[in-house]
Structures are given as C-alpha cells and as structure tokens.
Amino acid sequence: MIVGVDIGTSLTKAVVFDEDGSSIASACTPSEVHHLPGGRVEQDLDHVVATVATVVREVAATLPEPVSALALTGQGDGLWLRDEAGAAVHRAISWLDGRANSVLAEWQAAGVTTEVFRRTGAGMFPGCAGALLSYLDTSEPEVLDRAAVAGYCVDAVLQRLTGEITVDVSDASLPFLDPATRRYDDSAIEACGLTHRRGLLAEPAPAKSVFRLDAKGAALLGLPVGLPVTAGPFDLPASAIGAGVRQPGDGILTAGTTLACQVLTDDPKFDREGEPAGMFLCTPDEREYLHAMPAMVGTAGIDWVCALLGISVEEIDPLLANSEPGARGVRALPFLSVSGERAPFVDAGARAQFSGLSLETGRAEIVRALCESIAFAARHCFEAAGLSGQLYACGGGVRSPEWLRIFADVLGRPIVIPSDPGVGARGAVLTAAAALGSPFDRDRWAANSRTVEVRPEKVAGYERGYADYQASLSAARGLWRL
C-alpha cells in the first residue's frame, strides 16, 4: 500500500496501484496558482502542503490495508525558499515565472549561460533556480538572508513532513550539478555570481534514500510516526520511469501544461559547444540519465486558443478530425509563454505567431495550425535530445486521439500510451518500492498500454510542414525582443 503523490502545478494527485500497475484508489485536489503583474507566478507552500494532506487522507480512508509508505514526486524548477523549520520565507516562485527574464538576457549576452552549460549541460531559463536566485540577490536580498534553503517543491513538502533538509538529485540537476559526478560545480555557481549563496543549496540525497514521517507530518496526514517516505525524482523523470522508459535511446513525450521531451542515455557526455538549452537529469540509477528538452509550449496554448475562440477543450478533436494536415496554409509558432522558450533553445523574448490567415480562415485551421506547431516543436526537441528508440507519451494532451495521431505522424514513429494516466505517481511508487527492497514487476506494469501508429500517407506532408516551421522559426528568432 504505497501511496504515490504527484504535486503538480495546478493539481495534486494521490494514487495507489495494484501489482499489475493499475490504480485501485486515487484522489485529487486543485492547487492555487497566483499570476501577478510582471510575469510573476507564485504558489503558497502552506496551501500546497494542505493539498497533499487532503489527497493522502482521502486515499488512505479507502484502502483495505494500512498505508505502508509514501512516495512523493512533483513539479520541478522554480524556487521554494524556506527557513530551518520548513516555513516559507517567500511565496514559492513557480517554474512558469518570468521576473528573471532580464537576468537571463544579460547572462546570454555576457556568456554566463554558455559557461554554465559547458560545465553542467544545463540550459538556464527565467524560471530556473539560478536566474531566480540572482534576481532576488539583487532586488530582494533580505529574502535570501532569511532563508536556510533554496530548494524545490518536492523537498519543500518533504521537509514539512519529515523535518529533513535535502534535495533529490534530479531536482538538483538544474542548473549547478555536474551530471557525471552528481556534485555541484562551484565554478558554475561562481559564474552566476552566487558563491556567497552557496550555503542555500542542500546536498543531494544518496540514491534510494528513505525518510520517516515526524510527529508533525504524521498528524498532518493522519498516518503513523516513522512511516517511510521517499522524495523524488521530480515529475519529469518520474513520468519516464512510470511510463516504461528503460532502454537507452527510448524517450517520453509529456504533453502537459508544457511539452517535456526526454530521452534516456547511459552517457553523461554532452555537446559542450552546442546551443545551451535543455538539461541532463540524474535518475535513481546512478548509471543512467535523461536528456531533457522541456519546451514551454503545450496544453496551456490549447487552453488559450479555446478561450480566444470561445470553444471548449472537448471541441478540439472534432475540429482536428474535420480539417486537413497543413491547415489550408495556416502556419503557427507556438511560443505563448510570458517567459519565452527554454528548449531546444532558450530565448526569454520568444513569442507566438500565426501566418497565412485570410478571410476564409476558420476555427479549425487556427486550432490545427497550433496543434501541428506544438508537434513540430516536439520533433525539434527530440532531434536535439537524440531519440532513437521507443517513444512513450503521457499528460493531458494524450486524451486527444486526433492530436496524438498528429504527434505520431510528425515524429514518424509509433507512440505507446500507458493505460493509467498517473505515470508520475507510478514512477514515484516504483522508485519507492526499489528503495524499500520490494520492487514491482515493471514488465507487468508496462503491459497495460496501447500504441498509436504512424499513418504513412501523412508523413511526407508533415516533413514539408516541419521544414516550413524551421524556416519560420529561424526568421522569427532574429526579430524577438524583450
């Protein structure tokens, strides 16, 4: 009875799985996300912890046996500042935040982002801890002075439940960790001008670490003191584990609020002269890494176009089904995030565009152009990450059969969809089971899936569409300004 908890940006979920990897109990509750002027996006740590308590208590009440362990995963990046007791000294700054746009632009011009990338393989973006720490160090240093730890969502919740100050190696991977040594690179920290804040970075926990609920955490969740708790990996690598990614070259597409493209590798080497974007995420297996390209495009763009056109998300599939590939000449660049793009290139000034519009353009063409452009962005990311094997997919976007077919056709390969949507929680539970010495049969868990095949007759048209996308992107990058 391991309860997997996935603490997302807008939703916290708790799931318990049977021996075949099917969920037997689940609960979810929304989280508050505060969108403020200046591109600021924040969350309240107390509220997030309360959502965890809500879903854990709800699931535990339905189980036929006592809970045996708690497995945490959740959103990564951002900046969750706490004191020694785990209390927030500033509202948590989300990975969606854009307040450090100017910091990133200055670092790109000065070569700081290139220097950090060459040392750690991490491409920084406005919502990553490095840029946010630098912004606060200049603008609000008193906030950092009050903090004991500058961490992330999962370790912030862990501290409130166990009293432990630590961080999973996956979260620590961006932007200061050398993936080969799994230790912080002090020269990368120095390049960002943050050496004097080095003490805020918790040391990564050893592989297979297990923590225990303290009295406060036990009272909050209604579970016994001393219950085993694992924390991490965060949601991107947890989803890869939960979906079944196991062989080097295999990849996973997470079509969520943003578009996370990851490829498993057993080689921590990276192109140090390449464009400083993406990241190498350490996994629970010290011999494996995930080359991640987490683009800022995704279902948030679909929500935007639905609101703009006055349609519901349920209308997306019929519009796609009744339109032709190529959207009658309408093309799009999908960069709608206020903080620009972070993979497979980094540009805080990246913005969306539609072209080829006319008086004959309808809703179907606009929707299809956006959906196709997000699929082209996924291909761009996977080419940079080195996808060569089986591709898996998860996230809210996979609930659209028509959009999934577009992804398969654009990427030119079949896509495996796990039957249970809670792959982040699945990955957390699998990680916890291994740490506790009671691993599940991963082959049985991976068997519950379906495959979306490529439609050969669509591939050539999408090859032309992808070439047009790349040409439009190259032209637009010279025009973007903050």
TrEMBL record:
The keyword Nucleus does not apply. One of its GO terms (biological process) is D-xylose metabolic process. It is an enzyme of class 2 (transferase). PANTHER family: SUGAR KINASE, XYLULOSE KINASE. It comes from Amycolatopsis jiangsuensis. Keywords: Carbohydrate metabolism, Kinase, Transferase, Xylose metabolism. GO terms for molecular function: erythritol kinase activity. Residues 1-242 form the Carbohydrate kinase FGGY N-terminal domain. Residues 254-435 form the Carbohydrate kinase FGGY C-terminal domain. This is Erythritol kinase. Its EC number is 2.7.1.27. Pfam families: FGGY_C (PF02782), FGGY_N (PF00370). The keyword Cell wall biogenesis/degradation does not apply. Belongs to the FGGY kinase family.
